[in-house]
Amino acid sequence: MERALQRMSALVGLPALLAEHGVPLASVTDGLDLPPDCFGNPDARIAYGTASRLLTRAAELTGCAHFGLLLGLRHDHRIMGEAGQWMMAAPTLGAALAGFIAIQPTATRGGVAYLNRYGNDIILGYGTVDRFNLLATQQLGSVLAVGLNMVRNLTGGRAQPLEMIFAFRPPANPVLWSRLLGVPTRFNQPENGIILPRSAMLLPVVAGDCSKGADAGRLASLQRQAAKGMPPPPASMTFDVIRALRVGILTGEVTATRTAGRLGLHPKAMARGLSAEGARYQTLLDHVRSTTAQQLLSVTDLPVADIALSLGYANHAGFVPAFRRWTGQSPSEWRKRQQAR
């Protein structure tokens, strides 16, 4: 799998926030592969892992454990380029978020945004698919903070999230996170996201200009425009299936038929596309499950049985031999070795 790229977006605010903490930008960027003047261009692309390392270093050097969260809270949909343009022209929050999710693959190859049911509510979620970037907790905090501002500001404050959930261990001061975000928070969860009442999807967007239109033609035009900044993946069907599976495992919908349906394809067409790229569906499903399992084992304290259920396994007994096949170790052994590093 290729190493993932992502758009700079909220990272353009990094120098200013570092300066407020008395930390020079050069100390954070030292040794990292960054394009010239990327902090002045939200459309610049950098490696997904580099983005994570920037925020991790910034948190360490400033001594601010919630640095990523603070950075994200300074931005909203207006930092998102073409996706932001779409959202400001959409009639409702639901339409805005659906369009955002359609355009989002042009902004990052390392993560996937999605809308799913969450009990009787809706989750605007985000999951990583980059196996080289298992410890991206600062990045996750930043992404979800931007998403929170996006939801609130698009609706003029009418959309009131019920809570936010995070797939990593509680920070030293979880109460501070709830206070900064203005919503209840829970940690050690199997996914990251903003929980919204279903009624919020019908709220009108008040933050932009609906006269620009938000029909399918405009969405396609914005997708093409946004895609110009991101080199096409060498295996586009493989990339699409991995993203679809990352969302599907959260709801247990991981059959080839279900995944093809998410992509608007017949299962045979999906299989032919994967075969042409030298990929197999079951191999990709194993890849996504393995990556997600390793993330949850690395940064949460979730019991192995709960992780198994979150990956779509019926029970613990089915997950353990699969994980051993992927890594050569049991989940518990793998976690202990990670914690010992």
Structural class: alpha+beta
Number of domains: 2
Distance between the termini: 25 Å
* Count of helical stretches: 16
Can you summarize the main beta sheet? 5 strands, mixed
Rg on CA atoms, Å = 20 Å
Which range does the strand content fall in?
A: 5-15%
Low-confidence residue ranges: none
Task: Set down the secondary structure blueprint.
Layout: E1 5-7, H1 14-20, H2 25-29, E2 45-47, H3 48-62, H4 67-72, H5 82-89, H6 93-103, E3 111-118, E4 121-128, H7 137-154, E5 163-165, H8 174-181, E6 185-186, E7 192-196, H9 216-227, H10 236-251, H11 256-262, H12 267-276, H13 281-299, H14 304-310, H15 316-327, H16 331-340
GO cellular component, one term: cytosol
Protein name: Helix-turn-helix domain-containing protein
InterPro entries: AraC-type_N (IPR032687), Homeodomain-like_sf (IPR009057), HTH_AraC (IPR018060), Tscrpt_reg_AraC-type_HTH (IPR020449)
How would you characterize the overall build of this protein?
The chain is of the alpha+beta class. 50% of the residues lie in helices and 9% in strands. The strands form two sheets. Strands 3-4-7-5-6 form a five-stranded mixed β-sheet. Strand 3 and strand 4 form a beta hairpin. The chain starts with a strand and ends with a helix. This is Helix-turn-helix domain-containing protein.
